[in-house]
Amino acid sequence: MKLKNVAAVGSLALVTALALSACASGSGSSETPAASATPTTAAVDSTLTGTITAGGSSAQANAQAAWTSAFTAQAKGVTINYDKSQGSGGGVTNWLAGSYDFAGSDSPLKEDQAATAQTLCGPGGGINLPIYLDGVAVIYNLPGVKELNLSSATIAKIFSLQITTWNDPAIAAENPDATLPATQITTVTRSDGSGTTTNFTNYLSQTQPSIWTNPPSNAWPIAGSSAQQGGSGVVNTVKAGEGTIGYADHSAIGELSSANIQVGTGTDFVPFSAEGASNAFTEAAATVDTGVEGDLAQKIDYTKITDADAYPIPLISYAILCTTFPDEAQSTLTKAYISFIASEVGQEVAAKNAGSAPIPADMLSQIATSLELVK
Length: 375
Fold this sequence. Notes:
Layout: H1 12-17, E1 18-19, E2 38-39, E3 49-56, H2 61-74, E4 77-83, H3 87-96, E5 102-105, H4 111-121, E6 126-141, E7 149-150, H5 152-159, H6 169-174, E8 186-190, H7 195-207, E9 226-228, H8 230-240, E10 244-249, E11 257-258, E12 260-262, E13 269-270, H9 274-284, E14 285-287, E15 298-300, E16 314-322, H10 328-341, H11 344-354, H12 361-371
Parallel strand pairs: 3-4, 3-5, 7-12, 8-9, 8-10
Antiparallel strand pairs: 1-2, 5-16, 6-10, 6-11, 6-16, 12-13, 14-15
């Protein structure tokens, strides 16, 4: 696969600037890594001190662990506490309550949340900065089936409970070489407010509106699934069951199998790859005009993802923060950390340790410009 418009993080200059130990493989892990990836010459102010408190997106968990380790290896006086147990919904709620310096979220602020941020942040409001790029994996546990192709129509029918057994003709037609059992399908979904759910339901709503008639939401809309707390809850339940299927950020799925997803209406079924996520970002993501200076909230048009080199369900995750902090020292500290995350070095740390895709170079440049507004 070819990588389109992505920062040349593999260049010799960057390699010599990094001392990366692969504390997690590119295939991802369901466990938070004991990250030891430390860039030797990244632009981090070693004199910084203080504590950053944040939380939210469980999709960012492995990346946040690696970023924290790499950043604090240079700024030894800094402590970073990122609570992944909150999920995107809890992260945004706690940030709006003033408990977090920034929120991690797999979806940007909603209109009402942006209005509340005006009270928290003042006239500058809150900004959504895309710092993490990966994909929503459709994971399954079906003994004897090592590879599975699924179209958006079939996925929509499975998760809306219209297809209930694994040997259904629709699944069989997309997998003519597989021996599919008559096992009952158990769908596993998120019980908490989840940005991953927002991304997944947005994908279903856009690509199969006649089948998936529910609007995109961070709350799973259909009763009858096995509802679990957090991405890890979904992954562990799929892993423990038989005939189970769920969705999760790809970095968290460990050794679980994930389906190849049909691109558009063609004959190509594409497995997740970092390159595929980056190519999908290039094809289908566009910055939304929210009226807030520096805001880089993205809208993905999943119907535009037609390239066989693109993964059809990309996931963009954000750092959400105020442009005006009540405390200047906290602003300086948080801004330094987000700047590190949104650097080529920071993106390479995440790629090495969470299997994520680097944010494209032009977007990193825009994030740097937005961070100049943070005071």
